[in-house]
Design a protein that fits this description.
The complex is a heterodimer of chains A (493) and B (95). Chain A is built from 15 helices and 11 strands. Chain A is globular, with a radius of gyration of 21 Å. In chain A, helix 8 links the parallel strand 7 (264-268) and strand 8. By secondary structure, chain A is of the alpha/beta class. Chain B is flat, with a radius of gyration of 22 Å. The chains are: A alpha/beta (493), B mainly alpha (95). Chain A: Residues 25-470 form the Amidase domain. Chain A: InterPro entries: Amidase, Amidase_CS, Amidase_dom, AS_sf, GatA. Chain A: Pfam families: Amidase (PF01425).
């Protein structure tokens, strides 16, 4: 086989199972590709020794006929997931040297399924961002470029290292996490596939916390099938996360080709937003036609509180963030300010020096909306609006099974373009954030490219714990879209 | 509702987050920009709506009240800046 890194995760699995290729060969291929692509800044930490040791162990198991579902498949891990003995930074200066003494449940599940770790992938600092520009280790650069341009584009965020690595073929798949769109936005702008499962499907244990009622782990990979394989391996009920839900994880891959005949697809009128790029509107209309042509029934639905989702999110997420990030005190772990004059000074300076601008902003907003006298006006009201947003979906699902929407309001933008005004950046998550508030699963698949050759994604939203239907509908979109575009490997020089 | 410079200093203090004096005014402007935008939630009629406190409806699990983690003080201290033996070290708090 010529370039092993061009295989999908499912193809690589089958090649390994039929002994056409060893895990070591495959892993070496990715390690070499990573080395050549360092200019993209996707990985914060590469772990070649661990990768090769895991690959060799996998090859032994394969030889012994003891292969597990992801045996020998090299993946990247978002640097928000604690990995025992391997530096985990959350892309923040405040824990830039933190070495966890325990493993996150989701990454452990991957290793227990035979996967191989290539390294730790960059993201926005504490997963707060939509473009991977807030990382303390510098922005991640998208492998995609507009036709005829060398301008650097964002890979989306916060899981921008994950989307970049999959799009540039620096991993077969990657773990990611999604609080307001952090799996789906990066997938949409890099021509990759990503799923945010239902809240509670994956354990949050060992994943650096941002907003605990919204955070959910999920994969980014190159196809719907690859995501189905990865999510099956990642999901579990976990006694260490009381919000993980004890509902059996189905074999998503088995049901993938079921088709959409008779499936009711809801099209929410509130997602027709002014300011959406014309190519996004066009691809959404195409998506509707594709599903209709395969026998789905198209239903008009209404999600009336959609416009309030982002402001609601920017109360609830910072409130939970200010509480979660209180643990970084310069005492138990992380950055500690030099020569503190007293304990308060130690706390204030350690945190002031360790956190980046966006994280500081969110901690202050969160502290304000939770402070005495403002709690009812902001936080309590936001929780009530959140209930209304969730109720919108409950009502809509009386009429449809799956909802089809755009994933982002525009294709990838240039690095630096949106950093000046936080709200412009926040608005980029307008189509993704409702799902987190309602706790629902949502899948993004690549659907086409615009005139400049940049990828465009479509989003499917499902009922709680019905990821199986989502994968089936996503597969139908994938078949119709025939997305074959790949970024040119300009970084190879 | 908008915040003034004293409020920025007060919430920074509550958050134990050092904000340099020259950053107070720009931070005030940034926070007010976000808070003004959030104000639109005031239009929503929330009368009679119960606040949503859980992303997915489920009953909180109970578990046996027993020790589940081994004594791993050594591991806990690995990342402590300035930790000594099994103690976290902080500046003197009692005169």
């Amino acid at each position: 086989m010529s370039d092993l890194t061009e295989l999908t995760l499912a193809e690589a699995r089958d090649a390994i199972a039929s002994k056409k290729v060893s895990s070591r060969e495959l892993t070496q291929g990715f390690l070499k590709a990573m080395e050549e692509a360092r200019v993209l800044n996707a990985y914060i930490t590469e772990t070649p020794e661990i990768a090769l040791a895991m690959a060799d162990a996998s090859d032994k198991r394969i030889a012994a006929g003891e292969a597990r579902p992801m045996e020998g498949l090299p993946v990247g891990i978002k640097d928000l997931y604690c990995t025992k003995g391997v530096k985990t930074t959350a892309a923040s200066k405040i824990i830039a040297d933190y070495v966890p003494q325990y493993e996150s449940t989701v990454s452990q599940n991957l290793w227990d399924n035979g996967a191989v770790m290539l390294g730790k992938l960059s993201c926005d600092e504490f997963a707060m961002g939509s473009s991977n520009e807030t990382s303390a280790f510098g922005p991640v650069i998208s492998p995609w470029r507009a036709k005829g341009s060398t301008a650097q584009l964002v890979p989306g965020g916060s899981s921008g290292g994950s989307s970049c690595a999959v799009a540039a073929r620096l991993a077969l798949g990657a773990t990611a996490s999604d609080t307001g769109g952090s799996i789906r936005t990066p997938a949409a702008v890099t021509g990759t596939t990503g799923i945010k499962p239902t809240y509670g499907r994956c354990s949050r244990y060992g994943i650096v916390a941002f907003a605990s009622s919204l955070d959910q782990a999920g994969p980014i990979s190159s196809t719907v099938r690859d995501c189905a394989i990865m999510l099956k391996a990642m999901a579990s009920v976990d006694p260490k996360d009381s919000t993980s839900v004890d509902i059996p994880v189905p074999d998503y891959e088995a049901g993938l080709e079921g088709g959409v005949k008779g499936l009711r697809i809801g099209i929410p009128k509130e997602y027709r937003l002014e300011g959406t790029a014309p190519e996004i509107t066009a691809i959404w209309e195409k998506g509707v036609e594709w599903l209709k042509a395969q026998g789905a029934e198209i239903v008009d639905i209404s999600l009336p509180h959609t416009k309030y989702a982002l402001p609601t999110y920017y109360i609830i997420a910072p409130a939970e963030c200010s509480s979660n990030l209180a643990r970084y005190d310069g005492v138990r772990y992380g950055h500690r300010a030099a020569d503190p004059k007293d304990l308060i000074d130690l706390y204030e300076r350690s945190r002031g020096e360790g956190f980046g601008a966006e994280v500081r902003r969110r901690i202050l907003i969160g502290t304000y909306v939770l402070s005495a006298g403002y709690y009812d006006a902001y936080y309590l009201r936001a929780q009530k609006v959140r209930a209304l947003i969730a109720r919108d979906f409950t009502e809509a699902y009386k009429k449809c099974d799956v909802i089809l929407t755009p994933a982002t309001p525009a294709p990838a933008f240039a690095i630096g373009e949106k950093v000046a005004d936080p709200i412009t950046m926040y608005l980029y998550d307008v189509f993704t954030v409702t799902v987190n508030l309602a706790g629902l699963p949502s899948l993004v698949v690549p659907a086409g490219v615009n005139d400049a050759g940049l990828p465009l994604g479509l989003q499917l939203i499902g009922k709680a714990f019905d990821e199986a239907t989502l994968f089936r509908a996503g597969r139908a979109l994938e078949i119709a879209a025939e997305f074959k575009a790949k970024p040119e490997k300009w970084w190879r020089g | 509702m908008s915040v003034d410079k004293d409020t920025v200093r007060r919430i920074a203090r509550l958050a134990r987050l050092k904000i340099e004096e020259e950053r107070v005014e720009p931070m005030m402007a940034e926070l007010n920009g976000i808070l003004d935008w959030i104000e639109q939630l005031k239009e929503v009629d929330v009368s009679g709506v119960e606040p949503m406190t859980s992303a997915v409806a489920h009953n909180l699990k109970m578990r046996e009240d027993v020790v589940t983690e081994p004594n791993n003080a050594d591991a806990l201290m690995v990342n402590a800046p300035g930790g000594e033996d099994h103690f976290f070290v902080v500046p003197k708090v009692v005169e």
